[in-house]
Fold this protein.
Amino acid sequence: MTIEQLIEQVSKSNDNTDMDVLTHYSIDDLDKSSIDDFRRRVEGNPKFEHYEKLSSAEFLEEVGVIAINRNTGTKGVTIGGLLFLGKHLAILQTFPHFQMDLFDRRSQERWRTRISTFTDHLNVYQFFILSYNYLKSVPDNGFIVDEYPLQVEVDELLKLILREALLNLIMHTDYFSPEHEMINISWHDFEFINAGMMKIPVENFFTTEESKAGNVMIARLLKLIGFGECAGTGGEEIFNAAKISKIQLPSIETDAKRTILRISNKKS
C-alpha cells in the first residue's frame, strides 16, 4: 500500500481524525503570531474573558489545541490544532501535500491576487483570515434588490454567501488528501474546491441542517471566534441568500477526490 492510499484509508476510517494527538509535536511547533491573534479574538467574547488569566500553554489546552494522548498519557498537539495554528514547516512534516490557494483571476495576467499557504507559508488560520477579509472586499458594486421589503443590498448577501462557502471549505476538506484546496474568483463566478467527498448527499446540502464536519477540532476553533456557530446550516444560508438576491442558484458536485461548490453573482 502506498503512503497516499494509507492516508486516504485513515482519513475515511474516522470522522474525528483532526482530534487525534501528535505526541511528537509541542507548543514549539505552533506559530506564536497566530496564537496571539487567535487568542485576542477568542477573549474578545465576554464568555471567554476568563481565558486572559491563563498561560499560553493553558489556553491552548483549554481550547483543545494541546491535549493528552489517551494511549500514552503524554501531551501533544492535536492534528486540527497543528493545521490551524502550526508553523508551516511543522505542518508539512505530517501533511506534505498541504496547500490552500485563493486566486482572483479578474485580470489579463494569470491572476490579480493570490493568497497561498505555499508561497506565503501560512497555516489554516492565517489562510482563513486573509481569505475572509479578501472575499469581503470582492462584492464592492452592490445594488438594491427590487420588490424586497427590507431593501437588502445584494453585495451584503453575497458576502454572507462567500463567508459560508469559505467556512464550508475549511471545515469539511480532507487535509489528509493529496488534492489541495482552491478558491477561484472570476468576474461573475466563484469556485470553492476542497479535497474529499461530501459526507452528506449532494441533494441535501442546500436543504438540511445535518452536519458532518470532517474536521471537528477546526470547526470548534472557528466557533470560538464566532464563525460557523450554526454548523450544518451553511448550505441553507448560501441557497436562501442567493434566492433573495435573485442571483443564479449555487451548485455543488462531489466525487471520491474533491467537492466543488460554484456560486454566481449573475442575475437569475
